[in-house]
Design brief:
Keywords: Disulfide bond, Endonuclease, Endoplasmic reticulum, Glycoprotein, Hydrolase, Lyase, Lysosome, Nuclease, Secreted, Signal
Order of helices and strands: HHHEHEHHHHEHEEEEEEEH
GO biological process, one term: RNA catabolic process
Distance between the termini: 7 Å
Low-confidence stretches: 1-72, 305-309, 315-330
Radius of gyration: 20 Å
Strand content: 15-25%
Shape: globular
CATH topology of the domain at 76-296: Ribonuclease Rh, Chain A
Subcellular location: Endoplasmic reticulum lumen; Lysosome; Secreted
GO molecular function: hydrolase activity; ribonuclease T2 activity; RNA binding
GO cellular component, one term: endoplasmic reticulum lumen
Bound molecules: 2-acetamido-2-deoxy-beta-D-glucopyranose
CATH superfamily of the domain at 76-296: Ribonuclease T2-like
CATH architecture of the domain at 76-296: Alpha-Beta Complex
Largest sheet: 10 strands, mixed
Number of helices: 10
């Protein structure tokens, strides 16, 4: 293992352009087959490298605009799956505050509490669609009967935003597309479904039962194994990477559902900067560092004095990621 890693690592050092990997004359069949396997990973990374976007919907609006152009092109609003995204509010809040020192957040009163971010219809291999009904409006009063539960399970972490900003955004952007299904064809049904899934898929419990508690560091593979055991389906696992501290924080876990609203594997779903990475024993869909600890914070780290925009996603550091993959697929 060690030796192979060194050899492949050396090869990577020598040839940085991925395209040249294939033209290498390899020294042994074994390494050759490793590289071919790794080629699959490399290609997937290449494919998504051009589509990097901030999975975090709270990011600046220019990203939304770019994204929205790609979604729902020519009124084609077809979709295959729903991505049900839960977020870890501590990480979302940390990111939010670090992005701009004037940002404040509202955290749920409950500790160890994952909240709903959204329910996103998606076409395999594409982003979106989104904003499927341009004439739709959002009426908060249609949600009166579940308002308390929404505040509990689906709160807006942005401390400054007006009460219904997140729900309005989610409904107009994603709910209007989900509404194609009779089960989700109005605000009440759509948001109720999110709450039902949040209650039914308790990430804290799944992680806890694998010994993964807040305020710990774990590999993404350990997190993946825990979730796979809990869900029976392949989710995607998302991190935010703070380049100032070189720490990856667990941020979102996405579970996919088919149009019968049954949980299904997220394979084939485009998740921004996340890629499928094979490891001995499985395939994890993630943007987290594969060979570095992922921090699952219990408290929002202290505010730093100079809040600069230094957040990056691990994939941005393509070279580093390649190394992880090379290391991990050995
Ligand atoms: C779009 O939304 C409007 C307002 O809610 C509704 O009347 C209309 O039926 C919707 N259109 C489609 C195609 O769902
Ligand atoms: C997790 O990792 C971070 C960053 O290296 C470190 O500061 C922290 O003390 C670690 N936490 C635990 C519980 O090991
Ligand atoms: C979806 O779940 C229902 C039960 O909730 C089941 O009857 C149905 O067969 C499932 N569909 C698929 C495609 O697995």
């Amino acid at each position: 293992m060690q030796i192979k890693f060194c050899e492949i690592s050396t090869i990577l050092w020598v040839i940085s352009p991925i395209a040249t990997v294939l033209s290498l004359s390899l020294t042994s069949d074994e390494i050759s087959s490793e590289l071919i396997r790794n080629e699959d990973n490399l290609k997937r990374i290449e494919d998504i490298k051009h589509n990097i976007f901030f999975s975090d919907e709270l990011s600046s609006s220019e990203y939304h605009d770019d994204l929205d152009m790609e979604m729902g092109i020519d009124g084609n609003y077809e979709w295959d799956l729903l991505i049900f995204t839960q977020q870890w509010p501590v990480t979302t809040c940390y990111h939010w505050r670090e992005e701009d020192k004037n940002h404040a957040c509202k955290l749920p009163a409950d500790k160890e509490f994952w909240t709903v971010h959204g329910l996103w219809p998606t076409k395999k291999g594409h982003f979106g669609p989104s904003f499927c009904n341009k004439t739709a409006k959002f009426d908060i009063h249609l949600l009166d009967e579940i308002k308390d539960r929404l505040n509990h399970f689906w709160p807006d972490i942005d401390g400054e935003s007006k009460g219904d900003w997140l729900w309005k955004h989610e409904w107009l952007k994603h709910g209007t597309c989900a509404a194609e299904l009779e089960e989700l064809d109005n605000e009440l049904k759509y948001f109720s479904q999110g709450i039902t899934w949040r209650e039914g898929f308790e990430l804290s419990k799944m992680l806890d039962s694998a010994g993964i508690h807040p305020d710990s560091n774990n590999t993404v593979v350990a997190i993946h194994t825990a979730l796979l055991n809990g869900l029976g389906k392949n989710p995607s696992i998302h991190c935010l990477y703070d380049s100032k501290t070189d720490i990856s924080y667990l941020e979102e876990i996405r579970i996919c559902f088919d149009k019968e609203l049954n949980a299904t594997d997220c394979d084939g779903v485009k998740h921004g900067d996340a890629v499928s990475i094979d490891y001995p024993g499985g395939t994890v869909i993630t943007n987290c560092h594969i060979s570095k600890p992922v921090h699952y914070p219990s408290l929002v780290p202290n505010k730093r004095r100079q809040a600069e925009k230094k957040w990056k996603f691990p994939i941005v550091n393509l070279y580093k990621l390649l190394q992880f993959i090379m290391w991990f697929t050995l």
